UniProtKB/TrEMBL annotation:
Protein name in the entry: Glycine amidinotransferase, mitochondrial
Record: active site: D222, H271, C386 (amidino-cysteine intermediate)
Alphabetic keyword roster: Transferase
Keyword Nucleotide-binding (UniProt): no
């Protein structure tokens, strides 16, 4: 197959060094890697936890409940090791967030973690966009943990004479209305009527309608519900991303970037980065239980791409936690192997126990797979893609 060259990335006059990324796979130069200390189970209403989290672990999601201390400590070791490998082996510039006591965040109501920056920050071209988090417990997360990183970026850009824009999330004034009509203690008749309320939205998931855990009364989106493919961002509606969030993102993105929505068939949708994984320009792996090739091809950007479903279903494999007594995956599905991070179009970082996936990438796609331990970070809600924000990727 002859592939069109990636001509969709806007060309720039000089070679930027502080902020510049328009895809998920061209050579990485600088990134943020999160920090796990003091992570708490996110405390959100039961209807949201039921919609997004593995059933087995629902009882853990209660106010002020820290993740087990040994898991957090080992997660921090894994993140530090990952940062060291990125710096020493690949010569990348790595930014780290501040350590935050999440128990004190949100005026004592508690936060979540500093380990998953992908959810809250996204670089599109030379613009950094902060998520309008749907989850109340994540409000302030970027300000508390990443303020200094954003300052460093702005200072670096100024020194380098680069023009960089940081688009911070708007502050919510007054009560947040995002769960109105959806809370468990609402009367069932209210919830039924909720479907008629202005703010409510459902979306067609194949043949079924998904009732999301948020309404559409204000913009909400997590950056991890979007991926960059040149000037086109591919995203999804989810339990944390609503149509107003997508409109907001479209409005703040610089020209000529646009957003297209993928119809995913995932009732528990929250973050697109275990549903699709682009390896390089022209090659993408996808989770066939969540999206079809036909739906991907509907997007012109994938017209001539090699689109490959993961050829086995991780949900049917033996539970790793039983097999090797690894730490519980409290917040993620078994598709988490797809949450890998590309260093460049030939090199990808994969969790060291995902050996079947690693070998498939090597044998089928000729990738160089960097295997690193990350199981304790996985416990906190994500893998290498979630735990990073790529700040500079060299243009192809
Ligand atoms: N919520 C999704 C994405 C995680 C990165 C999942 O668990 O598969």
């Amino acid at each position: 197959m002859v592939l069109k060259k990636d001509t969709t990335t806007p060309s720039t006059m000089s070679s930027p060094t502080i902020i510049s990324a328009s895809n998920e796979y061209s050579p990485l130069r600088a990134l943020i890697i999160g920090r796990a200390a003091h992570s708490l189970f996110p405390s959100e209403p039961p209807h949201m936890i039921r919609a997004t989290m593995p059933t087995l672990h629902h009882p853990e999601f209660r106010p002020h409940h820290p993740f087990p201390a040994d898991i957090v400590a080992k997660a921090d070791q894994e993140l530090d090791n990952f940062a060291r490998v990125m710096t020493e082996r690949f010569g990348l510039k790595v930014y780290r967030p501040k350590e935050v006591d999440w128990a004190k965040a949100n005026e004592g109501r508690g936060g979540y973690t500093g380990a998953m920056p992908r959810d809250g920050l996204m670089v599109v071209g030379r613009t950094v966009v902060e998520a309008c988090f749907g989850w109340g417990c994540r409000r302030g997360e970027i300000e508390l943990a990443y303020h200094d990183v954003l300052e460093d970026i702005m200072e670096g850009a100024q020194k380098a004479g680069e023009s960089v824009r940081v688009c911070r999330a708007p502050k919510i004034v007054g009560a947040d209305t995002l769960y109105d009509g959806l809370l468990d203690d609402d009367k069932p008749e209210d919830r039924k009527d909720g479907a008629k309320q202005n703010g409510t939205f459902n979306s067609q998931n194949g043949n079924q309608t998904t009732h999301w855990a948020i309404n559409n009364t204000r913009p909400a989106f997590d950056c991890a519900d979007f991926m960059r493919f040149g000037t086109v961002l591919i995203g999804q509606l989810s339990h944390v991303t609503n149509p107003k969030g997508v409109d907001y993102l479209r409005a703040v993105l610089p020209a000529p970037y646009t957003v297209e929505l993928l119809n995913t068939t995932d009732d528990h949708a929250m973050h697109i980065d275990a549903t699709i994984l682009p390896l390089r320009h022209g090659t993408l792996i996808y989770c066939p239980s969540r999206v079809t090739e036909e739906e991907l091809r509907r997007h012109e950007v994938f017209g001539d791409w090699d689109l490959r479903p993961l050829p086995w279903n991780p949900e049917e494999e033996e539970e790793e936690e039983e097999k090797d007594e690894g730490p519980p995956r409290y917040m993620c599905s078994k598709w988490l192997a797809l949450n890998a991070m590309s260093v460049d179009e030939k090199t990808i970082v994969v969790e060291e126990r995902q050996e079947r996936f690693a070998r498939w990438l090597e044998e089928e796609f000729g990738m160089e797979v960097v295997r690193l331990p990350f199981r304790h970070v996985n416990s906190l809600g994500g893998s290498f893609h979630c735990a990073t924000v790529d700040l500079v990727r060299k243009e192809l």
